[in-house]
Amino acid sequence: MNISFKNFEVKPNTKITELPTDLILGKSKSELKEMLDQTRRQLGKMQNTLYAHRKYSVLVCIQGMDTSGKDSLIREVFKDFNVRGVNCHSFKKPSVLELSRDYLWRHYKKVPARGKYAVFNRSHYENVLISRVHPKIVLGENLPHINTVEEITEDFWNKRYEQINMFEQTLHETGTIIFKFFLNISKEEQKYRLLRRLNKPEKVWKFNPSDIDERQLWDKYMSAYETALNKCSKPHSPWYNIPSDDKPTARYLVAKILKDRMSEYSDIQYPESDLDKSLDFYKKRLENE
To answer: Is the pTM here over 0.90, yes or no?
Structure first.
């Protein structure tokens, strides 16, 4: 299959209704699983090289509506990574301590060190997604000059997009490779997955009544996503639209995009050892013990 990561990049002036939620690759579930297994093994080897090289880091942001498959995708795509080289962070409602800082502070604290991956399960984009749908959340930040919802204007949101772009630009310029995946599911598929949660005893614990309330705001969320994707998809930190109505397909696409883009960094190599000329000496010393 000739799949290029460039085909999934969000282009300027994208309409979210024109982005596909389903993609037929003509492969069975078992074939997709085998393709994913092979790709993530390659990713695991590349991660070891990145860890030894220690000049780049990788930030992977996963965003999507409830039930879009974020948790299971992270589990399956990063299964073959060495645990010392990858950290996953899930950003829920900010704490009192986090609200006393700027909104990017808690995210900046979790960006990956050189040689490592960090996966953001939901990310700094929550501050222009759920906060935009529910602007009362912004009031909890106790910002100067923002005392009512009416004072949260379009200029306020545009400034946030600029701040997020500058945040990512700084990360990029200091060696962080950024991936941003939008797990795009249809409203019909979300309904099916919510019903499945309610009908399966082993999944009902995942259900939250607020999921139904948030579903009623679908159009508002799609508008917020469309704006964020268009404002913040840059050459150094592009957004990728991942058709996610089929989970195995979505997992494979994310793994393949990661592998193919990381393959372009030909300078990521195992470092040369300063001991190369002395290796025989140390080998003989060990052998002669």
So the answer is: yes
